[in-house]
Amino acid sequence: MTRLSTTICAMTFQGNASNRLQQDAFFFVDDYYQEAIGITPVHRCDDAFCVAVSDGVAESNLSQYASLKTVKTVKQLWQNYLDNSNQSAVMDISKIYEKVATLPKRFYGASATLALVYRPLAKASETNPPIVIKHIGDSRVYHFSAMTKTWRCITRDHNLLNQLIDEKAENENRQADFGEYNQDGMASPMYALTDCLIADSDLDNNPMPTFDSQTLKVSSDDCLVVCTDGVHDLVPCDKWQSIDKHTDLQAWLKQLSKQIYASEGRAYDNATAILVRFDEH
C-alpha cells in the first residue's frame, strides 16, 4: 500500500461578528493562531500531523481566552507526543479541559468548542495509520470521499437539538440515525450547547464535558475540513466545491470565504476552516 502524505491549508477571519472580537483560534501543524490572517501558505506533512479549531462561545466577551488556551494546550500535547514517540498519541482531552477550567477567576464563564484531527506516527507494521478525530461542541469535521465525490459531516454537535433527537430515539427503542443530527433551519435556542470547555475551577459544578472520538481510514485524494460554526452555519457542505488532486487548496478556501460573505448570514461570525487532502507520494 502506498504511503499517503497530507497537504494542509487553513483560513480564518473575524467576519462581521457583532462583538467585534476574534474568538476563533486554531492549531496548524506546529503552532497556534488567533488572528485574522486570511489564508495560510500550503503545508505538506509526510508522516504525523495535527490540526484543531476552537471557537469561543459568544455568551462571554472573554471566550477568546478559552479558545486560545485550548489550542495552546493542543500544541503542548502534540509536541510532548512528538518528543516521546514511545507513548500513545492520546491527545488527552481531559488535560485540555483542566487547562481551560483552571484559567484565572477573571475568565470564569468563558467557554470554547474543539474539533481536533491528527494522524499518529506510523508504527513499523503500519503504512497509513487511521486518522483520529475528537470533538466537543459544534465545531465540526467533514469528509470528502474521492470515490463518491461528495462532502458529508462526520461529527455530531453537542447541542440541545441533538440531545432531544437521542431522547426521542431512546423512547422509540431505537438508535438515532446519523442523518437526523445537525439539522438546519431550527430556532436558535435549539442550538444551545450541552457540552463545551468552560473556565471555572469549581469542578463539581463544571464537570468534564462529553466528547466524541472516532478513527477514520482515508484513501488517496480524500479530504477533511475541520471548521467552526461560522463556516457550516452559513454555507452547508452540499454547497461546497468538489475537490481533487489538482485543486489549489488556497483557491478552494478563498471560494468558501466568498460564499460565507455572500450567504444570507453575511459572515455574521468568525470563521475558521482547515482543509486537509491526502495524497500519494
Low-confidence parts, pLDDT < 50 over ≥5 residues?
A: none
Secondary-structure element string: EEEEEEHHEEEEEHEEEHHE
Share of helix, binned: 10-25%
End-to-end span in angstroms?
A: 11 Å
Query: Structural class given helices, strands, pairing?
Result: alpha+beta
Strand content: 25-35%
| Average of per-residue pLDDT values | 93
The number of distinct helices, counting runs of at least 4 residues, comes to 5
* Tally of DSSP β-strands: 15
Overall description:
This protein is α+β, with helices and mostly antiparallel strands and 281 residues long. It is 21% helix and 27% strand. The strands form three sheets. Strands 1, 4, 5, 10, 11, 14 and 15 form a seven-stranded antiparallel beta sheet that branches. A six-stranded antiparallel beta sheet has the order 3-2-6-8-9-13, covered by helices on one side. β10 and β11 form a beta hairpin.
